[in-house]
Records
---
Amino acid sequence: MPTPIKTAQPDYPILDCIAQRYSPYNFEPRPIEHDHLLRCLEAARWAASSFNEQPWRFVLVTRDHTDAWSAALACLMQANQTWAQNAGALIFTLARNTFTRNDKPNRVAIHDIGLAIGNFCAQATALGLHAHQMAGIEIETIRQTYAVSAGFEPVTAIALGYAGDTEPDDKPRSRNALSEWVFADRFGQAHPITS
Ligand SMILES: Cc1cc2nc3c(=O)[nH]c(=O)nc-3n(C[C@H](O)[C@H](O)[C@H](O)COP(=O)(O)O)c2cc1C
């Protein structure tokens, strides 16, 4: 598998499936093998969650279902539709915001959704796929299109597919240095391990 064009240049060695993940704007408009989809979903399934609540729910739509694909695209903000229309699949993520065991609010539900999506993205990258997550979604349209049950909140959408070998922006990806956000003793004071 060739090295993806936007592979990170980390300061310390990290797993390939983390370094090679990026959010493409250029997807090849082709379907994704069901086996690959299932492996990404299975990776999400094995995420940790508070009290093993597994508060995530996904709505999966594949591009080969034409009517469903148009309806799914309409659940994205216009700017995201322009590039996401070429993805192989769209996934809407939803969170159950209370615990099943006692109906109390689950303060960390969205955190746990993020863990599941992190697993999903890592597995996708390992399979040569790329995922582009979106906050730019139409919450009410999602609720209506998929008849979302009470107690569940749409969180994000994910465009999943095969990335092209160019991107509109060829700038290297960048991140804040560890010293800017790993603290010791008091908030804002860089931990000495980072210098
Ligand atoms: C929760 C979340 C929401 C995002 N929403 C959007 C979005 O609506 N539209 C978009 O083009 N990119 C979106 N992104 C992609 C980010 O812009 C991207 O992850 C960030 O610039 C870092 O780039 P990288 O993922 O290639 O490392 C989102 C990413 C995350 C994690």
---
Amino acid sequence: MAKHKILIIGFGTVGQGFYELFHEKQVSIGLEDTVVSEVIDAKFGFIKNFGPDIITQLKGGKTFEKADVFKTIRNSEADIVCEFTWVNIKDGEPAFSHIEEALSAGKHVITTNKGPIALRYERLHELAAESKLKLRFKGTVMSGTPSFNILELLPGIHVQKVRGIFNGTSNFILTEMAHGKSFDEVLRLAQSMGYAEADPTLDVDGFDAALKAVIFSKVIGWTKHDLNSMDIKGIRDISSSDASAGVKLLASMDSESASVKPVHLSPDDLFSNINGVMNAAEITTDTLGKIFVAGPGAGRKETAQAVLSDLVEVINN
Ligand SMILES: NC(=O)c1ccc[n+]([C@@H]2O[C@H](COP(=O)([O-])OP(=O)(O)OC[C@H]3O[C@@H](n4cnc5c(N)ncnc54)[C@H](OP(=O)(O)O)[C@@H]3O)[C@@H](O)[C@H]2O)c1
């Protein structure tokens, strides 16, 4: 009998990436008695009692009967729900309701979905706390690269300020523009390489980075920041000469204010060396001064690592 069971909602890049990484690492992280017992996905349907070759079967075109997601959550034997559906920056739905339903049904939740965490964190945090359940969302900021979660290693530390390059697509565009290419040319390149969506608004207009800045702030306790109150500006007006002069799209937050905007950096600023799709965060603290972390901010395996980190925390702590 498995000790822990996982229900995955949304079986795309992150869901499948997590499924694969979990099985690759399960023994080395001591989770032999944990299983992914159910999967529900808009495209593939509801999948239960499946074998390790499920992803190969789905790639081969196999689909399963559709089911209602909310009923599935309520009836599930799983004690952990992983929410990996699409991001909605207007109201966080349907992910918010999926997470609310899971917590109300007594299940821990792990999500990589920025919408519900950035927009409705307080309600979800309160619901989890009331029910003594865990709500983890490491993958929402810098994928598996440590970001706000390193604060868990630093008891008592006081964070004074955070700066970050939180959007790999816009950083990639600025890096390429610094070599003389135009915004439109590099955007097409980013789309052809799969870094940018057909509708690049979230990335290039600063909203994706802003959602991450809000989430980072909420973890620290700077609860007043949200998309409406933040100063948000993207990179559409940046020229290649601005980019080659060291302009980066930077998030900046402290207890009073938060912004995402293009900033001209001096060459000795560590962020000026963060190129391509890399992400980075600088956390200014009372005891350690500045802590700087850099690494991938998206990707199948990279985001799966974030979910694995959250899973170990949910199960072991
Ligand atoms: N990919 C990354 O590198 C990355 C990194 C960090 C965070 N994230 C976040 O993680 C989440 C998942 O990303 P992803 O890249 O895995 O997206 P994805 O490849 O598009 O996968 C999402 C899956 O969820 C399904 N889905 C959509 N609405 C659903 C619903 N109501 N009920 C059940 N299934 C539903 C989709 O089916 P259809 O295709 O039929 O809609 C799709 O199979 C997003 O919120 C994303 O922002 C992604």
